[in-house]
Amino acid sequence: SQDLKTALVGRKVICYDAVDSTNLVLKNLAREGAEDGTVVVADSQGTGRGRMERAFFSPPGKGIWVSILLRPTFLPQDAPKCTLMAAVAVARAMEAFGLRAEIKWPNDILHDGRKLVGILTEMSAEMDRVNYVVIGIGINVNIAPEDFPAELRAIATSLMQMKGAPLPRVAFLQELLRALDDLYASVQREGFAPVLAAWREYAVTLGQEVRVIGPAGEEFEGVAADIDAEGALLVDTAEGRRRVLAGDVSIRPR
Ligand code: BTN
Q1: ipTM of this predicted complex?
Q2: What is the CATH number assigned to the segment(s) 13-202?
Q3: 3 state DSSP class of 147
Q4: To test ligand 1's pocket by mutation, which of 52, 57, 90, 137 has the most ligand atoms within 8 angstroms of CB?
Q5: pLDDT in tens, the chain (254 residues)
Q6: How would CATH label the architecture of 209-253?
Protein backbone atom coordinates (compact mmCIF):
# COMPACT_ATOMS: atom_id res chain seq x y z
CA SER A 1 0.00 0.00 0.00
CA GLN A 2 3.03 2.29 0.26
CA ASP A 3 3.52 2.08 -3.49
CA LEU A 4 -0.21 2.12 -4.09
CA LYS A 5 -0.72 5.09 -1.77
CA THR A 6 -3.76 3.40 -0.28
CA ALA A 7 -4.66 3.43 3.41
CA LEU A 8 -5.87 -0.11 3.66
CA VAL A 9 -6.84 -1.92 0.49
CA GLY A 10 -3.72 -3.59 -0.88
CA ARG A 11 -1.74 -3.36 2.38
CA LYS A 12 -0.74 -6.82 1.36
CA VAL A 13 -1.02 -8.00 -2.25
CA ILE A 14 -0.40 -11.68 -2.97
CA CYS A 15 0.18 -12.51 -6.63
CA TYR A 16 -0.15 -15.96 -8.15
CA ASP A 17 0.53 -17.34 -11.56
CA ALA A 18 -2.39 -19.76 -11.49
CA VAL A 19 -4.96 -20.60 -8.82
CA ASP A 20 -8.29 -22.41 -8.77
CA SER A 21 -10.16 -19.25 -7.77
CA THR A 22 -8.88 -16.08 -6.10
CA ASN A 23 -12.06 -16.00 -3.99
CA LEU A 24 -11.35 -19.52 -2.70
CA VAL A 25 -7.71 -18.70 -1.94
CA LEU A 26 -8.63 -15.52 -0.10
CA LYS A 27 -11.45 -17.14 1.88
CA ASN A 28 -8.92 -19.69 3.15
CA LEU A 29 -6.50 -16.89 4.10
CA ALA A 30 -9.37 -15.05 5.81
CA ARG A 31 -10.11 -18.12 7.95
CA GLU A 32 -6.42 -18.14 8.94
CA GLY A 33 -6.68 -14.52 10.08
CA ALA A 34 -5.53 -12.46 7.06
CA GLU A 35 -5.93 -8.74 7.69
CA ASP A 36 -8.41 -6.19 6.38
CA GLY A 37 -7.43 -5.05 2.89
CA THR A 38 -5.52 -8.19 1.83
CA VAL A 39 -5.62 -8.70 -1.95
CA VAL A 40 -5.14 -11.88 -3.97
CA VAL A 41 -4.55 -11.57 -7.69
CA ALA A 42 -3.84 -14.31 -10.22
CA ASP A 43 -2.78 -14.37 -13.85
CA SER A 44 -5.20 -17.19 -14.51
CA GLN A 45 -7.87 -19.23 -12.69
CA GLY A 46 -8.66 -22.88 -13.27
CA THR A 47 -12.10 -22.76 -11.71
CA GLY A 48 -13.04 -19.08 -11.64
CA ARG A 49 -16.59 -18.90 -10.35
CA GLY A 50 -19.43 -16.47 -10.93
CA ARG A 51 -22.81 -16.00 -9.35
CA MET A 52 -25.18 -18.99 -9.28
CA GLU A 53 -22.12 -21.31 -9.34
CA ARG A 54 -21.47 -20.48 -12.98
CA ALA A 55 -17.94 -20.91 -14.38
CA PHE A 56 -16.07 -17.67 -15.05
CA PHE A 57 -13.68 -17.61 -18.04
CA SER A 58 -10.26 -16.51 -16.67
CA PRO A 59 -7.47 -17.13 -19.22
CA PRO A 60 -3.78 -16.26 -18.54
CA GLY A 61 -2.22 -12.94 -19.55
CA LYS A 62 -5.41 -11.15 -20.52
CA GLY A 63 -7.49 -10.25 -17.52
CA ILE A 64 -7.58 -9.04 -13.96
CA TRP A 65 -8.80 -11.81 -11.64
CA VAL A 66 -8.64 -10.33 -8.18
CA SER A 67 -10.22 -10.70 -4.73
CA ILE A 68 -10.21 -8.21 -1.88
CA LEU A 69 -10.69 -9.08 1.80
CA LEU A 70 -12.55 -6.62 4.01
CA ARG A 71 -13.23 -6.83 7.73
CA PRO A 72 -15.77 -4.05 7.96
CA THR A 73 -17.58 -2.64 10.97
CA PHE A 74 -20.96 -2.55 9.18
CA LEU A 75 -23.70 -5.12 9.76
CA PRO A 76 -23.98 -8.38 7.78
CA GLN A 77 -27.12 -7.15 6.00
CA ASP A 78 -25.05 -4.32 4.47
CA ALA A 79 -22.53 -6.67 2.85
CA PRO A 80 -24.38 -7.14 -0.48
CA LYS A 81 -23.82 -3.43 -1.13
CA CYS A 82 -20.09 -4.22 -1.43
CA THR A 83 -20.96 -5.45 -4.91
CA LEU A 84 -22.26 -2.01 -5.80
CA MET A 85 -19.17 -0.44 -4.23
CA ALA A 86 -16.90 -2.67 -6.32
CA ALA A 87 -18.80 -1.78 -9.50
CA VAL A 88 -18.30 1.93 -8.77
CA ALA A 89 -14.58 1.32 -8.15
CA VAL A 90 -14.25 -0.41 -11.54
CA ALA A 91 -16.18 2.44 -13.18
CA ARG A 92 -13.77 4.99 -11.65
CA ALA A 93 -10.73 3.00 -12.81
CA MET A 94 -12.21 2.84 -16.31
CA GLU A 95 -12.65 6.61 -16.27
CA ALA A 96 -8.94 7.01 -15.49
CA PHE A 97 -8.35 5.23 -18.82
CA GLY A 98 -10.90 7.31 -20.72
CA LEU A 99 -13.64 4.68 -20.70
CA ARG A 100 -17.24 5.34 -19.65
CA ALA A 101 -18.77 2.48 -17.66
CA GLU A 102 -22.37 1.35 -17.77
CA ILE A 103 -23.53 -0.70 -14.80
CA LYS A 104 -26.42 -3.12 -15.05
CA TRP A 105 -27.99 -3.77 -11.64
CA PRO A 106 -26.59 -5.14 -9.47
CA ASN A 107 -23.14 -6.06 -10.63
CA ASP A 108 -22.47 -6.31 -14.33
CA ILE A 109 -20.45 -3.74 -16.23
CA LEU A 110 -21.40 -3.78 -19.88
CA HIS A 111 -20.30 -2.35 -23.19
CA ASP A 112 -22.75 -2.50 -26.09
CA GLY A 113 -24.83 -4.87 -23.98
CA ARG A 114 -21.97 -7.33 -23.56
CA LYS A 115 -20.25 -8.14 -20.27
CA LEU A 116 -16.85 -6.63 -19.41
CA VAL A 117 -16.67 -7.28 -15.69
CA GLY A 118 -18.19 -9.69 -13.17
CA ILE A 119 -18.32 -9.26 -9.41
CA LEU A 120 -18.93 -11.94 -6.77
CA THR A 121 -19.18 -10.89 -3.11
CA GLU A 122 -19.06 -13.61 -0.45
CA MET A 123 -19.45 -13.10 3.27
CA SER A 124 -18.96 -14.94 6.54
CA ALA A 125 -20.81 -13.59 9.58
CA GLU A 126 -21.52 -14.72 13.11
CA MET A 127 -24.53 -13.33 14.93
CA ASP A 128 -24.59 -9.64 14.07
CA ARG A 129 -20.92 -9.32 13.20
CA VAL A 130 -19.21 -9.62 9.84
CA ASN A 131 -16.24 -11.93 10.08
CA TYR A 132 -15.07 -11.19 6.55
CA VAL A 133 -16.26 -10.05 3.15
CA VAL A 134 -14.43 -11.27 0.05
CA ILE A 135 -15.11 -9.23 -3.07
CA GLY A 136 -14.07 -11.03 -6.27
CA ILE A 137 -13.73 -8.97 -9.41
CA GLY A 138 -13.07 -10.38 -12.87
CA ILE A 139 -12.20 -7.88 -15.60
CA ASN A 140 -11.84 -8.84 -19.25
CA VAL A 141 -8.92 -6.57 -20.12
CA ASN A 142 -7.05 -7.65 -23.24
CA ILE A 143 -9.28 -10.40 -24.57
CA ALA A 144 -9.87 -10.49 -28.32
CA PRO A 145 -13.25 -11.71 -29.61
CA GLU A 146 -11.70 -14.95 -30.90
CA ASP A 147 -10.13 -15.64 -27.48
CA PHE A 148 -13.57 -16.21 -25.94
CA PRO A 149 -15.12 -19.67 -26.11
CA ALA A 150 -17.83 -19.78 -28.76
CA GLU A 151 -20.68 -19.66 -26.24
CA LEU A 152 -19.40 -16.37 -24.77
CA ARG A 153 -18.62 -14.53 -28.01
CA ALA A 154 -22.02 -12.91 -28.33
CA ILE A 155 -22.34 -11.94 -24.67
CA ALA A 156 -18.82 -10.99 -23.52
CA THR A 157 -16.39 -8.25 -24.50
CA SER A 158 -13.22 -6.62 -23.11
CA LEU A 159 -11.73 -3.24 -22.25
CA MET A 160 -9.37 -3.67 -25.22
CA GLN A 161 -12.30 -4.15 -27.57
CA MET A 162 -13.99 -1.11 -26.05
CA LYS A 163 -10.93 1.12 -26.30
CA GLY A 164 -9.55 -0.24 -29.55
CA ALA A 165 -6.14 -0.76 -27.92
CA PRO A 166 -4.68 -2.96 -25.18
CA LEU A 167 -4.60 -1.60 -21.63
CA PRO A 168 -1.82 -2.00 -19.02
CA ARG A 169 -3.14 -4.54 -16.53
CA VAL A 170 -0.99 -3.58 -13.55
CA ALA A 171 -1.75 0.14 -13.89
CA PHE A 172 -5.46 -0.64 -14.18
CA LEU A 173 -5.34 -2.83 -11.06
CA GLN A 174 -3.60 -0.02 -9.16
CA GLU A 175 -6.33 2.46 -10.12
CA LEU A 176 -8.97 -0.07 -9.11
CA LEU A 177 -7.44 -0.70 -5.68
CA ARG A 178 -7.05 3.04 -5.07
CA ALA A 179 -10.68 3.66 -5.99
CA LEU A 180 -11.81 0.81 -3.75
CA ASP A 181 -9.67 2.11 -0.88
CA ASP A 182 -11.34 5.55 -1.14
CA LEU A 183 -14.83 4.09 -1.31
CA TYR A 184 -14.26 1.66 1.55
CA ALA A 185 -12.90 4.45 3.76
CA SER A 186 -16.01 6.52 3.03
CA VAL A 187 -18.29 3.56 3.79
CA GLN A 188 -16.58 2.95 7.13
CA ARG A 189 -16.90 6.67 7.93
CA GLU A 190 -20.39 7.53 6.75
CA GLY A 191 -22.12 4.39 5.46
CA PHE A 192 -23.21 3.42 1.95
CA ALA A 193 -25.28 6.46 0.91
CA PRO A 194 -22.45 8.13 -1.08
CA VAL A 195 -21.65 4.80 -2.77
CA LEU A 196 -25.29 4.36 -3.79
CA ALA A 197 -25.37 7.92 -5.14
CA ALA A 198 -22.20 7.26 -7.18
CA TRP A 199 -23.65 3.96 -8.41
CA ARG A 200 -26.72 5.75 -9.81
CA GLU A 201 -24.46 7.87 -12.06
CA TYR A 202 -23.41 4.77 -13.99
CA ALA A 203 -26.64 2.79 -13.83
CA VAL A 204 -28.18 1.91 -17.18
CA THR A 205 -30.94 -0.22 -15.66
CA LEU A 206 -32.83 2.68 -14.07
CA GLY A 207 -35.72 4.03 -16.12
CA GLN A 208 -35.79 0.91 -18.26
CA GLU A 209 -38.46 -1.70 -18.75
CA VAL A 210 -37.20 -4.94 -17.26
CA ARG A 211 -38.26 -8.51 -16.82
CA VAL A 212 -37.29 -10.06 -13.50
CA ILE A 213 -36.74 -13.80 -13.26
CA GLY A 214 -36.74 -15.13 -9.72
CA PRO A 215 -34.93 -18.13 -8.23
CA ALA A 216 -37.94 -20.42 -8.77
CA GLY A 217 -38.37 -19.23 -12.36
CA GLU A 218 -41.27 -16.89 -11.58
CA GLU A 219 -41.28 -13.80 -13.77
CA PHE A 220 -42.68 -10.30 -13.72
CA GLU A 221 -42.25 -7.13 -15.73
CA GLY A 222 -42.08 -3.49 -14.88
CA VAL A 223 -40.01 -0.32 -14.97
CA ALA A 224 -36.82 -0.22 -12.89
CA ALA A 225 -37.42 2.96 -10.90
CA ASP A 226 -34.53 3.22 -8.45
CA ILE A 227 -32.46 1.39 -5.86
CA ASP A 228 -33.27 1.76 -2.17
CA ALA A 229 -30.98 2.16 0.84
CA GLU A 230 -30.37 -1.61 0.89
CA GLY A 231 -29.29 -1.58 -2.75
CA ALA A 232 -32.45 -3.45 -3.77
CA LEU A 233 -33.95 -2.67 -7.18
CA LEU A 234 -37.41 -1.08 -7.07
CA VAL A 235 -39.56 -2.20 -9.98
CA ASP A 236 -42.89 -0.53 -10.75
CA THR A 237 -45.28 -3.17 -12.05
CA ALA A 238 -48.96 -3.00 -13.01
CA GLU A 239 -49.74 -4.32 -9.51
CA GLY A 240 -47.54 -1.79 -7.77
CA ARG A 241 -43.94 -1.44 -6.66
CA ARG A 242 -41.88 -4.57 -6.07
CA ARG A 243 -38.55 -4.79 -4.35
CA VAL A 244 -35.90 -7.05 -5.82
CA LEU A 245 -32.95 -8.09 -3.71
CA ALA A 246 -29.61 -8.79 -5.33
CA GLY A 247 -28.32 -12.29 -5.61
CA ASP A 248 -31.40 -14.30 -6.35
CA VAL A 249 -32.77 -12.87 -9.59
CA SER A 250 -31.73 -12.12 -13.12
CA ILE A 251 -33.13 -9.23 -15.08
CA ARG A 252 -33.21 -8.52 -18.76
CA PRO A 253 -34.66 -5.85 -21.01
CA ARG A 254 -38.26 -6.42 -21.97
C1 BTN B 1 -20.37 -13.06 -12.15
O2 BTN B 1 -20.36 -12.39 -13.17
O3 BTN B 1 -21.27 -13.90 -11.97
C4 BTN B 1 -19.30 -12.85 -11.14
C5 BTN B 1 -17.93 -13.23 -11.66
C6 BTN B 1 -16.82 -13.02 -10.65
C7 BTN B 1 -15.47 -13.46 -11.16
C8 BTN B 1 -14.34 -13.10 -10.24
S9 BTN B 1 -12.76 -13.36 -10.97
C10 BTN B 1 -11.97 -13.16 -9.42
C11 BTN B 1 -12.85 -13.86 -8.40
N12 BTN B 1 -12.55 -15.28 -8.31
C13 BTN B 1 -13.57 -16.03 -8.71
O14 BTN B 1 -13.56 -17.27 -8.74
N15 BTN B 1 -14.61 -15.27 -9.08
C16 BTN B 1 -14.30 -13.86 -8.93
Answers
A1: 0.99
A2: 3.30.930.10
A3: helix
A4: 137
A5: 657 788 899 999 999 999 999 999 999 999 999 999 999 999 999 999 998 788 999 999 999 999 999 999 999 999 989 999 999 999 999 999 999 999 988 888 999 889 999 999 999 999 899 999 999 999 999 999 999 999 999 999 999 999 999 999 999 999 999 999 999 999 999 999 999 999 999 998 898 899 988 777 788 899 999 999 988 999 999 999 999 886 556 666 66
A6: Roll (2.30)
